[in-house]
Design brief:
CSC1/OSCA1-like 7TM region domain-containing protein (chains A, B), transport (chains A, B), mainly alpha, ion channel (chains A, B), four-stranded antiparallel beta sheet, 760 residues, two-stranded antiparallel ribbon, CSC1/OSCA1-like_N (chains A, B), globular, 32 helices, ion transport (chains A, B), homodimer
């Protein structure tokens, strides 16, 4: 087991790493050449069009104002300055609600840590429970002296831990409830103040039955004219645009290659670039690159236009789904929240997500397919989750250095080098896990896509919950159970299923040091790495050198990225779980978690303000998921504490501890009934208020024009300024920045009043 | 353990009892004097006004036509004759769907029994597995030779049982799915063909917030005029009429006493009845009974009228709930299925049940109260269920006659009398349980009332599900575990929680004989007793002698009763559970269950046609509950078989058996998605079709008049012909039968064409 020293070394390494990242960031961010990487949000919003220059040659690329290097950490207070309402305007409610998860972590764990360190640590420290173990083959470290393991069996001191469990439960529930309430209110206010948007009036209809006598368009029109006569306005058919997507994709690649060749030509001037037509461009006939790609792009453009015409006029490509728009929000709210047809598998209606949130590929899936896909994914997920454990188990086993020494005695001299040992123990398990986990979100996202969700937001929510389950089983349980398997495999194999919670409970205090390293590597260094944006930085500069010809290309070369709910939230939830589980067992873990939450809050706030460009706005719809997972973590922590205490011969406490999960479940049911509807339904009263206001303000509004093409397939919209994009040979005539195209809904044409302090 | 002989004696006793009941019924039913007890349904429907007389003196009271005695069982084919669609017209859909539960039992178990007896019984019988147990202290009977216990451990013959489990699962699921589909269709057709009724247009609104500036009536009017401007029609406030109810109740008692005294006076003629005013009418001042009660009735009538006026004019008694009626079914469907206000605890809307189905006392309960009451009831139910086991355990222990002999050796000579032993073993356990269970439904009903449900139908559904859980734990598990506790208590106490399913599984074959007796006593004799209607018969004749003065009084003296979903359905479900559990273990149980289902189907069909008067019509809304419970029973049976086989060292079968519950759960989810919406939601398309039809047929319908007082408190309605009821001194002027008052919705004014065969 790791000693205090090992932890100290690991902490030092991680702190240094994090600090290095911050310094690198501080230097990089004030270089004008990196401006688009570190402040893309402002470009997207149209509030900044070129990097600020301090004058003189070279200042276009590097910052020569040395005073700005001194204030290298001043982005931190800046990130905290923007008030919340303005942040909602600036970045959308989703981002603000997401940041509040970190705040919630601080609000929950800071007071708990204070109580734990004043009340529990002295109680744990002044014992000699662990000394008795010295002769057995279970190793322990000084850190364990701060934990519950240090208290001898059956000691009356366990009452302190019992009280602590109550304090944790009540405080967590209190904070959760307050937060749920706040966020429900924020969401309702946000929706109430929101501008007119197509999705407020639109319902997505799926599983439209086929009729031999009527086309899908006629069917939709008739059905809604009959069944919603006073409210139905218009509808928009959904096309199967997979061929078009393909063409657009190919054209983009060709365009990139063309740009690359053009740039090459501009630089070398004299000779025109030549490409080979054979295998991978290595052999075969030589042709003029610029001419070849120009002709390719042109022919593809023609094909795209033809395909679009075909889609627009023909009815063959129409899938049995449609976006139906209503005259009022009231009408849409009614249609979205009721069942239309006698057959519950037909005419399924739901709120349409925002146009940019729609995942078009899944709209056409029939009811039966969806069910079958769900089963397939469930099975696949099961196997993914449980067979993934094999490599994890192997890596975890390496983390236990004494285990390695026992297994491979010849490695002993190497490992015993003090620094090396600390590094192995501090880094190895965390990093190996991290690499494993890096590829996982993509697989899970593909699974969700296959499962048939129709909006990016729901895809991300689903992927997040799968990722959390995965982390819970493989990182949390896997680390605890497999890790100790090396120490007490024999003991464990001979136990009945009934005793497993107890075994897990017993192992928890022993894994505290592992999780501390994990938090430092995955949390601290990860967050610091996030702000450096190394990957986007490199990609941007590569693209900038080879592909960028216009300002518009440069805009597209920047990938501002998004918060990434499907990867970020499960990570936070793992820390909630660790915090809650260890709060009553080894409170030494809490400061590390608090540092993570604090650091992450500042970093992500900075990123939300300056970098991320959310692809959709769900108005905080994910909060019920967040709430549910924290509650689950709380219940898990109570059960494990129960298991742990019962092995400590403090079984008198079991009935008292059993009360806690029951209360927590009751609390969850209460919250669900009280606050969840705000995230699921849209009250008719609200709809009516907005409708009435609008009717008074704009009595002769042409809504029909407002909906025209609002829900057209994105590829349709991409092509609208195809001719403009074709302007490859006229580099003088720069296409203007189209702020509305990729902007947030709420982009204000005027600069925000708090704007100045943020643009360096 | 009971031997084949014991079972034979018990069966003989039960068959004789059942037969005696049937003969008694055959004799009683053709006596004109009992006509109102055995054919109340026809009186209520107004199709019969006085009993049929065969002529001659005395024929008014007893049937002197001896030919009719010969055909004493001819009610059975008669009961089966009425075709289903007419039965729906005659008795409502609820009754028809209820009868289909018995049919479902026959459809599931008859083919299973055929397969089991041809395939499994020979496999079980031709073994000697039980002979090995002869020397141990576990006793067994010949019946066990037919069961799975007779197969030696680890025998390859268990593959037959495994296949049987698959056959049972697939057949049961197939029948369940077909039935769910049928009943969903029946319900939709029934609702589509249904006449205009207030509840199609009405929504119950609860938790109306209080407003210092507006009364509740104004608030409701304003809210719905604003939020449902095109559809809102009118509303009806709900009054707190508890005082009125009390007065009406007291008046009814006084009226009964007055009637009694009047009758007494008519008979004795000379002297007027005298009553004493003191304690319990035994001492104190003497007054003239008729005068006293007349004055009491009159003063109470005055008070009632005053109270009603006060309620009607005042606003103080209005509770924060209202029945809001809409211009169209579409409007009501929309309002019932959407959320109205931002706060999900206010303005809660749901479909109003039929006026006669409403349980008025609970309408005013606020949201928080409901939650608290739910918790209290959950705790109370927990204690009721688990502490009730103590007396059951005691009674069950008596059922084991060898146990008694061991405990009280001096009783041995008495018990060893062959007949007495058989009687004790055949009757005792069943009857004791039955008496325990008789009082339970009332307690559970009170619990449901306290919990705050607002319609009788939902109260009954809730009470039914609680009763089922109770029976499952106490009758099924309780009998198995506690019963065997006498035999293997030591073995059982020393097992871990993990092995309990195995223990239950092992005990199952041993309890087959107990459950056979239980089925005979509870099922066969119970059903036969149901048709005799002994309690209503006695009460009717008592009332008829002392309290009845007018035909109307006589009408009220008959209690036709209802099907009693909350007691009947859980009983059927217990048989489903027993059938499914024993089908693969001891198929000998199946014939007994099939006889029960067949007999019950005929008897209840007769009762539905001739006796029961349903108090409400929910259009088969309880079917999802029925379906869910059968599926649960199926899963329990699979798990127990798994437990049983794993103790039989046939653990190779476990993975194959584990597939079954997974498949069954998948099946349940599928059915839920596919058919449950038909029982929960009301599709807008259906509503629109009905609205359009109605608008075409009756363009100038005055709906407002239609709703007036539709949802008035029943006491308001009772009092409407109070003056008529006061006509105590004018016995000549009989009040006419008010067929609409207690009739079913669908009472046809014309006699049914299939009518004649049913009136004897």
């Amino acid at each position: 087991m790791a000693t205090i020293n090992d932890i100290g070394v690991a902490a030092a390494i991680n702190i240094v790493t994090a600090f290095a990242f911050f310094i690198a960031f501080a230097i990089f961010r004030i270089q004008p050449v990196n401006d688009r990487v570190y402040f893309p949000k402002w470009y997207i919003k149209g509030l900044r069009t070129s990097s600020i220059q301090t004058g003189g040659f070279g200042s276009k690329f590097i910052n020569l104002d040395f005073r700005s290097y001194v204030r290298f950490l001043n982005w931190m207070p800046e990130a905290l300055k923007m008030p919340e309402p303005e942040l909602v305007d600036h970045a959308g409610l989703d981002s603000v609600v997401y940041l509040r998860i970190y705040l919630l972590g601080l609000k929950i764990f800071f007071p708990i840590a204070c109580v734990a360190f004043t009340a529990m640590v002295p109680v744990n420290w002044t014992n000699k429970g662990l000394d008795g173990l010295k002769h057995s083959n279970i190793s322990y470290s000084d850190i364990d002296k701060l934990s519950l393991s240090n208290i001898p069996n059956g000691s009356p001191r366990f009452w302190v831990h019992l009280c602590m469990a109550y304090v944790i439960t009540f405080w967590t529930c209190f904070m959760l409830k307050r937060e749920y309430q706040n966020i429900a209110l924020m969401r309702l206010q946000f929706l109430a103040n929101d501008e007119r948007r197509p999705n407020q009036f639109t319902v997505l209809v799926r599983n439209i039955p086929t009729d031999p006598h009527e086309s899908i368009c006629e069917l939709v029109e008739h059905f809604f004219k009959v069944n919603h006569p006073d409210h139905y306005l218009t509808f928009q058919a959904v096309h199967d645009a997979s061929k078009l997507s393909e063409l657009v994709q190919t054209r983009k690649q060709m365009q990139n290659l063309l740009d690359y060749n053009l740039n090459k030509h501009t630089r070398t001037l004299s000779k025109r670039p030549v490409i080979k037509m054979g295998f991978l461009g290595c052999c075969g006939e030589e042709v003029d690159g610029i001419k070849y790609y120009t002709s390719m792009v042109e022919s593809l453009t023609r094909e795209i236009i033809e395909e679009k015409d075909k889609l627009r006029t023909g009815t063959k490509s129409i899938v049995p789904a449609a976006f139906v728009s209503f005259k009022s929000r009231w009408g849409a709210a009614v249609c979205a929240q009721t069942q239309q047809s006698r057959d519950p598998t037909e005419w399924l209606t739901e709120w349409a997500a925002e146009p940019r949130d729609i995942y078009y590929d899944n709209l056409a899936l029939p009811y039966v397919d969806l069910k079958i896909r769900r089963i397939i994914v469930a099975v696949a997920y099961f196997f993914l989750t449980f067979f993934f454990m094999i490599p994890i188990a192997f890596v975890q086993s390496l983390a236990n250095i004494e285990g390695i020494e026992k297994a491979f005695p010849f490695l002993k001299p190497l490992i015993e080098v003090k620094l090396l040992k600390s590094i192995i123990q501090g880094f190895l398990p965390g990093i190996a896990l991290k690499i494993f986990l890096m590829f996982l979100p993509r697989i899970l996202m593909q699974m969700s896509k296959f499962e048939g969700f129709v909006s990016t937001s729901s895809l991300e929510r689903r992927a997040a919950s799968r990722f959390y389950m995965f982390q819970f089983i493989n990182v949390f349980l896997g680390s605890i159970v497999t890790g100790t398997a090396f120490q007490q495999l024999n003991k464990f194999l001979n136990q009945s299923a009934n005793d497993i919670p107890k075994t897990i409970g017993v192992s928890i205090p022993m894994k505290a040091t592992f999780f501390i390293t994990y938090i430092m590597v995955d949390g601290w260094a990860g967050v610091a790495g996030e702000i450096l944006r190394l990957k986007p930085l490199i990609i941007y500069h590569l693209k900038n050198s080879f592909l960028v010809r216009t300002e518009k290309d440069r805009e597209e070369a920047t990938d501002p990225g998004t918060i990434g709910f499907n990867t970020g939230e499960p990570q936070i939830q793992l820390y909630f779980l660790l915090g809650l589980v260890y709060a009553a067992v080894s409170p030494i873990l809490l400061p590390f978690i608090i540092v993570f939450f604090g650091l992450a809050y500042v970093v992500y706030r900075h990123q939300v303000i300056n970098v991320y460009n959310q692809k959709y706005e769900s108005a905080g719809k994910f909060w019920p998921d967040v709430h549910r997972r924290v509650v689950t973590a709380l219940i898990v922590s109570q059960l494990l504490l129960m298991g742990l205490l019962s092995t400590k011969q403090a079984s008198k406490s079991t009935p008292l501890l059993l009360v806690l999960p029951v209360l927590t479940i009751g609390f969850h049911i209460h919250c669900k009934g009280r606050y969840q509807p705000a995230f699921v339904t849209y009250p008719l009263q609200e709809a009516m208020i907005k409708d009435t206001l609008e009717r008074t303000r704009e009595p002769d509004l042409n809504l029909k024009a407002f909906f025209r093409n609002a829900y057209a397939h994105p590829e349709f919209r991409v092509g609208e300024n195809l001719e403009l994009e074709m302007a490859v040979e006229k580099p003088d005539k720069l296409p203007e920045l189209v702020a509305t195209k990729r902007g947030s809904w709420r982009n204000t044409p005027l600069p925000s009043k708090h704007n100045s302090p943020y643009s360096p």
